[in-house]
Design a protein that fits this description.
6-stranded mixed β-sheet, globular, single chain, Rossmann fold, alpha/beta, 10 helices, binds S-adenosylmethionine
Amino acid sequence: MKSVIKGFILAVAKRNRLIRSTAQFITESTMRDYYPYLKERFIKNGEGHHCDADQRRKLVEQFERIDREIPIGSSPTDGLFLAEMLLNLEPDGDLLECGCFAGGSSAKLSLVARLLGRRLLIFDSFQGLPEVEEQYLRDKHCRRGEDWVTNWDSGRFDAGKEVVRRNIETHGDISVCTLVEGWFNETLTPENLPEKIAFAFTDVDLSNSARDCFVAIWPRLAEQGLFVTHDTAYIKVLQEFYNSRLWQEDFQSVPPILFGAGFGLCNASPHVGYMVKGQNLTPEYLKNLTIDK
Ligand SMILES: C[S@@+](CC[C@H](N)C(=O)[O-])C[C@H]1O[C@@H](n2cnc3c(N)ncnc32)[C@H](O)[C@@H]1O
């Protein structure tokens, strides 16, 4: 009897593995197919746009070089989504990045910042993830079959400030960037934050880091400004963004839509989600932020 049960369990486990690897294969193939499609759309969106098709083609070439040359935690489609949002951003103000690893995403953002004549402030410890309490070391991924995500040891993603600077110098535009070093709960302060933030991209993994960024940035975000997260697939992070006390007592407003909540913007960008600030946002403005017009 025991061996029958054991055989059954083994058969299910094996099948599960097969199902999982098939799902992974399909996801990876979709990623490969979707990037060329989005890239074509992104360039085509240059017709009649202040950033024309030639400028966009050049941007894509620069982004692809960054993807090849710099270790990077965000995907090629993530880069295109961010660029399209930025190119259609209405409010004045600076751009922010929290969580830069080796500077790959920063280099991409800096190229768009240069095109737009905006400043980019980059916040990071430049020594990787912090040491945190046990409860923050585990999260659940909305789309993956695995149990807890737990690979967030302190020091992970430590590339060093000088490497980040060099990577941006070589592949982006360091002249528009300011690097702010330290833990978010110490650096995202009124002294370091600009008066007006038009756009923030946070890619920080841990739910407490995500909360520190969100709490500091959201009140300073301009009307029609964007808060983009690269951590939308993590359930604890989502819970931080929708903490009711935060909205009722601190922000005294209602939370907006988080586009991509839990599932991202496509299979190739499963971690990207964004909120747009404001009460009277037109569907035209919101639609214009996307690549598929
Ligand atoms: C996943 S990596 C960023 C990847 C990068 N955006 C890219 O596309 O390559 C996460 C980054 O967040 C930073 N980070 C996380 N929590 C932090 C905290 N509390 N204070 C400062 N930096 C933090 C880490 O140092 C790391 O560089």
